[in-house]
Design brief:
single chain; mainly beta; ten-stranded antiparallel sheet; globular; binds beta-D-fructofuranose
């Protein structure tokens, strides 16, 4: 840490002993999801396994629960169940990142962690629109030996180094190694408002050459944020969060989308993209990033939030924090689509197992502060209610999630088209629901703020298994 970083670090609020009581008393704090100690959280960054720990860095606004200038916050865990808050990893303390240490990713190699990120700079001056003018999006690299402190931070590329025809919006590097070379994706917005992904290659991790561009034949949104590319079960997948895709019926119901294309061919050369599918069709899931666990699983974590949405979270004004991460989700390709399901580690939080056979009459089950509900559906209709605040109903091939006015804070309903609903798994935390449909072929994630969700009611013809969930351990820096 240099002197300036040390000063910034001192400024970053920590949860002091006195505040801890407040934290523990806050009924909206999530019990088995990561969230900021205080302030604001958005995208997951630098996800990796390094020296015996999972690392989740994240976009962090420690001074302002409504955002502000971004830092990189940091959680580590040996098992995705016991998490430790680490010191802020990156502060906006360099000329190339002074208005925000934006999103990026991790490369683990030899005894070091290489963290590539975007330094955001907003130039002061008249007449800038901050799209075509006035903004610097700089590619930077922070290197760390212990995974906790930055040993070296350097600028690698600036806007002038990117291909012609782009706006200033070029960000969110995703880096990995393949066949002895390094590859990097950058999300970009062109001057004609086309979203695309720039593909770079490097021999030395420092000098990067633009070798390809991935985009759709027809424009699909004006900007592709947080690109990712990986191979799972033999299928290449390009994932990103496109902005500017307009709603079509039940598709793309959120202000910004988040999804993936299967990629056929070679991402370095000739390729075609298959059909775009949304990774999550709830209100609150964006900018996911994937990484490979030490046992080879491909795991995704997404921001359980949505930028620029017209719905809100009362925790910003009332509790001094906002947003969280999704649970880690294991990805697979089933030949038709990606499936996403909670990592099996979370099963260790189960307690109080109950089973129900539902046929005709509604079954009611008391819940504590969180639940894992698994339903095998045998009927054409199904209804699951959390208190009076959230309803999930299946009829005529549509699965509808509806939130009450008092719990939704502007969130009303979201609809999934499901021809045959066979299976549902719902992870309910104090103020979130993650709904995995038909073994994770579709997922709906939402924040909600129930006054009383201490009971679930199930109607239809189904088998249900319900577990209460113990809390994960979050060790705060004090
Ligand atoms: C996505 C995003 C990224 C950017 C970061 C800034 O939510 O806009 O594109 O790097 O958030 O916080």
């Amino acid at each position: 840490m240099n002197a300036l970083q040390r000063d910034m670090f001192r400024l970053v609020p920590r949860i002091e002993a006195g505040d801890r009581a407040k934290v523990d008393a806050d009924p909206r704090r999530l019990r088995f999801h990561l969230m900021p100690p205080v302030g604001w959280m958005n995208d997951p960054n630098g996800l990796c396994w390094y020296k015996g720990n999972y690392h989740v860095f994240y976009q962090y606004g420690p001074f302002d629960p409504n955002g502000g200038v971004k830092f990189w916050g940091h959680w580590t865990s040996p098992d995705m169940l016991h998490w430790k808050q680490q010191p802020v990893f990156l502060c906006p303390d360099q000329t190339w990142d002074i208005h925000g240490v934006y999103s990026g990713s991790a490369l683990v190699e030899d005894d070091a962690l290489y963290l590539y990120y975007t330094g955001n700079v907003k130039h002061l001056g008249e007449g800038f629109d901050y799209i075509n003018t006035g903004r610097g999006h700089n590619l930077a690299l922070a290197i760390s030996a212990d995974g906790i402190h930055v040993d070296k931070n350097q600028l690698l590329m600036e806007n002038k180094d990117y291909p012609d025809g782009l706006t200033c919006h070029v960000r969110d590097p995703k880096v990995w190694k393949l066949d002895g070379k390094y590859y990097m994706l950058l999300g970009a917005r062109t001057k004609e408002d086309r979203g695309e992904i720039l593909v770079y290659e490097s021999e030395d991790k420092l000098n990067w050459k633009h070798i390809n561009t991935i985009t759709t034949p027809e424009i699909f949104g004006y900007m592709w944020e947080c690109p990712d590319l990986f191979c799972v079960d033999g299928q290449y997948i390009v994932s990103m969060s496109p902005q500017g895709v307009t709603r079509q019926g039940n598709k793309y119901q959120n202000i910004y989308s988040c999804g993936y294309f299967p990629l056929y061919g070679d991402f370095r050369g000739a390729y075609t993209l298959g059909e775009y599918t949304e990774s999550d069709i709830g209100f609150d899931y964006y900018a996911p990033q994937t990484f490979e666990a030490p046992d080879g699983r491909r795991i995704a974590i997404g921001w359980m939030g949505m930028p620029d949405a017209d719905y809100t979270n009362p925790t910003a004004a009332e509790n001094g924090w906002q947003h969280g991460m999704s649970v880690p989700r294991e990805l697979h390709w089933n030949g038709r689509c990606l499936t996403a399901n909670p990592v099996s580690e979370l099963d260790a939080l189960h307690c109080n197992h109950r089973t129900f056979s539902v046929d005709g009459t509604a079954v009611k089950c008391e819940l504590k502060k969180g639940a894992d509900i698994r339903i095998s559906n045998h009927g054409k209709q199904l209804r699951v209610m959390f208190g009076n605040d959230a309803e999930l109903s299946y009829a005529a091939g549509l699965l509808t999630l509806s939130l009450s006015e008092s719990s939704g804070y502007g969130r009303d309903s979201r609809v999934a088209e499901i021809e045959n609903l066979t299976e549902l798994r719902i992870l309910a935390d104090t103020s979130s629901l993650e709904i995995f449909i038909n073994h994770g072929e579709q997922v709906m994630t939402t924040r909600f703020y129930p006054t009383k969700a201490d009971r679930v009611t199930i109607e239809g013809t189904c088998q249900a298994e319900i577990y209460d969930m113990n809390a994960m351990e979050l060790a705060y820096l004090v």
